[in-house]
Amino acid sequence: MAVALLHRRSCRRAHLFRQHRSRPHPSRPLPLPRPPVAEVAQAPVQARHAAAIAVSGETYTVQDGDTLSKIADKLGIHGGWQHLADANADTISNPNLVFVGQVLQLPA
């Protein structure tokens, strides 16, 4: 008898909880549909200015741990990594990303 009474109370509490949960509470804001977000037109990304950089004909193969800055410093490239990036503008779209085994043209 006691078990049946406890079970009935438990089921009633669960039912009341479900009813209460489905009703909005006065202190809780109502969920409103979000307005559609207007797409913002983005300005076209300007390509790096590669003003006819003369290449020396020499190449360098990127090693593990290399960055354009480290390569430019190691090889003494005048103009630094920017000059090296401009000389390889056709193969380097992001100067922060160079890959092991990538062959770079060295500027003159």
UniProtKB/TrEMBL annotation:
Segments of this protein annotated with the region Disordered: 15-35
Stretches of Basic residues bias are at 15-26
Gene3D superfamilies attached to this UniProt entry: LysM domain
- LysM domain location: 58-106
The record's SUPFAM superfamilies line, in alphabetical order, gives: LysM domain
Origin superkingdom: Bacteria
Its protein name is LysM domain-containing protein
Say which species the protein is native to.
Arthrobacter globiformis (strain ATCC 8010 / DSM 20124 / JCM 1332 / NBRC 12137 / NCIMB 8907 / NRRL B-2979 / 168)
Lineage, broadest ranks: Bacteria, Bacillati, Actinomycetota, Actinomycetes, Micrococcales
